[in-house]
Amino acid sequence: MPLPREHLLDELATAYVQAVAAIAGATIAGSRDYGIDGTLQQIEQRRTTEGTQFLPSGYPVDFQLKGTTVASVGQSLVQYDLKVRNYNLIVDRRASATPCYLFLVCFEDNPEAWFALQPGELILKASAFWWTKTGPKSSNSSTVRVDIPSRNRLTPDAIRDMLRASEERFEG
């Protein structure tokens, strides 16, 4: 039995972020509870008395993950209507807390265009973007339009930058 469309979008969005995070040298711990879908951890190579080990850095980044076909993806701006609760969880995060981002994975409307499998290739046909903001909560009743600069592509370098910023936040 096939997955419902929304569940398939969620699973493919998760796979997309998992692949980008792995290339960035990070792991994802999933929670899907209380408005946080996952936590990124940078993995560091350290020399210890027991030899070389790979350990989490201790400077995490939380994220909400949305897979969608309804975002407006323009040349310079991506617009998405985020539920007020999700928006408020990001903008109202305490300055001393782990940073929180929205990861938005945008697919075409046609499910047949989301995925391609060829010998030696697995292709997820999507674009992903990141967004974060601090400030006052929204008093809207259902959604808040989020404007994401198109340059905020979710790439391995972007994930490394987020993790570095988290470390600076805790160290500074």
Please provide a written account of the structure.
The chain is built from 3 helices and 11 strands; from the N terminus they run αββββββαβββββα. The chain has about 170 residues and is of the alpha+beta class. Strands 1, 2, 3, 4, 7 and 10 form a 6-stranded mixed beta sheet that branches. A hairpin with a 2-residue loop joins strand 8 (about 115-120) and strand 9. It is globular and about 55 Å long.
Overview features:
single chain, 172 residues, alpha+beta, 3-stranded antiparallel beta sheet
Secondary structure blueprint with pairings:
Layout: H1 5-23, E1 26-33, E2 36-48, E3 51-56, E4 61-68, E5 72-73, E6 77-83, H2 84-91, E7 100-107, E8 115-118, E9 121-124, E10 126-131, E11 143-149, H3 156-171
Parallel strand pairs: 4-7
Antiparallel strand pairs: 1-2, 2-3, 2-4, 5-6, 6-11, 7-10, 8-9
Brief summary of the model shown:
The protein has 172 residues and is of the alpha+beta class. It has helices at residues 5-23, 84-91, 156-171, and strands spanning 26-33, 36-48, 51-56, 61-68, 72-73, 77-83, 100-107, 115-118, 121-124, 126-131, 143-149.
Beginning-to-end CA distance, first to last residue: 51 Å
Low-confidence stretches: none
**What fraction of the residues are assigned to beta strands by DSSP?**
35-45%
Quick one: overall form? Answer: globular
Rg, rounded, reads: 17 Å
Number of DSSP helices? 3
Domain count: the total is 1
Q: Major sheet: size, sense and barrel closure?
A: 6 strands, mixed
Structural class: alpha+beta
Order of helices and strands: HEEEEEEHEEEEEH
Beta strands, count = 11
Helix content: 25-40%
The overall average pLDDT, rounded, is 93
